[in-house]
From TrEMBL:
Intracellular or extracellular location(s): Cytoplasm, Cytosol
Keyword Membrane: no
Protein name (Swiss-Prot/TrEMBL): Flagellar protein FliS
Organism: Sphingomonas lycopersici
Cellular component terms per the entry's GO annotation: cytosol
Similarity comment text for this entry: Belongs to the FliS family.
SUPFAM superfamilies in UniProt: Flagellar export chaperone FliS (SSF101116)
Amino acid sequence: MAYASALLRNPAQTYREIDLAGRTSNADGAALVSLLYEELIQALRVAGWAAERNQFATKSERVTRATAILFALEANLDFDKGGEVSKTLARFYAGARAEVIRASIGHDGAPFRAVADNMAEIAAAWSQVRGV
């Protein structure tokens, strides 16, 4: 019944939650990282859209989601196996997080899109390494 009441409030969000749950249920670690990138990029693009349209609640929700995903990506880096690449990604994620937080106080969507574009490049490289 929880889905029914949530569906009535926001059908699109309910669909996304069900879709995400389905895609994560059997995913391995590498596939989960790809999903995190996908969700991060989407959250950043929506935050940019919302910032330019004064949709403060949507912007706040998407900034929170993007920040949480950046923390998750950073927290799951394997510095023993990843060496210098992990250190570089940690700095990159921290810088992206700082940029998102700075952008969150304004009405300009460009910083969110810039971070999303940078993340899309990393996601593409990750997919290439995975052979997807």
